[in-house]
Amino acid sequence: MATKYRCVECGKIYDQMRQDGFCSNSVCYGVGLLESFEDSDSESKFSNSVSADEIGLCVLVCDASGSMESHAFSENPASRIQLVANAAAAGISDYYRDATDKKAQIFSKPEQAYIAIVGFGETASIIQGNDGKPFIKTLDQIQQEFPQREDLSDFLHSSLTKLCPLNRKYTDITKALVLAKEIQDAALKGDLSAYGISGSFKVMEHDIVEKNSNNLLTVPNTRVLIYSDGGHNPGDGTSLSNPFESESLSTLMTVFLGNPDSTDLNERKGADEMKSLACLCPIHKIVGYYLIDSPQRYAKLRGIFRMASGASGFCPGCLAPPPKER
Fold first, then answer.
1. pLDDT of residue 202
2. Pairwise CA distance, residues 249 & 180, whole Å
3. Contact 300/290 with Cβ under 8 angstroms?
4. Cβ neighbours for 44, distance < 8 A, ≥ 6 positions apart
5. What average pLDDT does this structure show over 195-214?
């Protein structure tokens, strides 16, 4: 077994002791002392194994169809997929631990918060992480692998474009939702072994007050967020269906990127479909649907990914103001 060295603050691993004995990560300056450990210890601590008794889960369902590489807005060169990758990376990294300020934590247990990322085109699959395993990781693990939000954005963009193994000519929303529901159901059963995660656990729950009735509802700490820029267009011709529709309380939130009044029939169809699929927020009785059709509305996309990652809401009424930059 080889000896390696780990920062006591951020967990970054080095093959050799650094000359000054400290982590090179700027946020660990002055406090990120390196400790030695045997390589087998690293495997147990940083492996794909649930070590927590309770977890939360967010499934991000990402449209990887070729149309996502077109410009989002007429006067801006950024593609739709680049906008999404940037916003998702910003929203997720908002929950990163701040090693320099323990009081600044906005997420108390990032080691218990899991994020799964599904890409879809003609079919749907969980994207692969850099380790070659399905991307179902805790916020802590994501921060260790992608310490800067730019790193995470670049990874997401590549995974959903040039490295995407799917046929991107089609957009099969049904298959994407079926996979997302299967992942959520597996988590609710306490068994994610089919997706490379070992160990037993249960999903956290929290109570919310239902609008008008004042009923207290117990809700599992899971959310599913899907985005698309067009209508359901499967290669096999199957019709659109929503597996979350049968739930007593749907956890499916939807985002549409584009113009709902476009002359493009597929774009208009996509907007209608995304809205029809969305959950009804039990807190505000507002549909959990978000329309991103202008640079001004794009500014909300970071908050949407952040809210879904924290499993803290269901609809635009639940969306908190974006956090101040750190």
1. 94
2. 16
3. yes
4. none
5. 87
> Which residues contact residue 158 at a Cβ distance below 8 angstroms, ignoring those fewer than 6 apart?
none
Contact 153, 85 (CB under 8 A): yes
Rounded to 5°, angle at Cα 9 from 117 and 53: 55
Instruction: Write the secondary structure of 102-129 as one string of H (helix), E (strand) and C (coil).
Output: HHHCCCCCHHHEEEEEEEECCCEEECEC
* 57 DSSP β-pair partners: 114, 222
For residue 41, name the pLDDT band (cuts at 50, 70, 90): very low
How far apart CA 308 and CA 324 sit, in angstroms, is 18
Beta strands 216-220; 124-126: pairing state: unpaired
What pLDDT does residue 153 have?
A: 97
Q: Rounded CA gap, 68 and 50, in Å?
A: 34
CA-to-CA distance for 170 and 300, rounded, in angstroms? 27
- List pLDDT tens digits, range 69-118: 999 998 889 999 999 999 999 999 999 987 555 555 555 678 899 999 99
Q: Which one, of 293, 295, 226, lies nearest residue 259 by Cα?
A: 293
Residues 230/68, Cβ–Cβ less than 8 Å: no
Q: How far apart are alpha carbons 215 and 98 in whole angstroms?
A: 37
Architecture of domain 54-318: 3-Layer(aba) Sandwich (3.40)
Query: pTM to 2 decimals?
Result: 0.83
H helices within the chain, ranges in order? 39-45, 80-93, 139-145, 149-159, 173-188, 265-277, 295-298, 301-310
Domain ranges of the chain: 3-45, 54-318
Residues 6+ apart with CB under 8 A from 297: 291
3-class DSSP state of 279: coil
Query: Per-residue pLDDT averaged across 266-275, rounded?
Result: 96
Q: Which amino acid is at 89?
A: A
Going from the C-alpha of 293 to that of each of 8, 122, 273, the distances in angstroms are 44, 25, 16
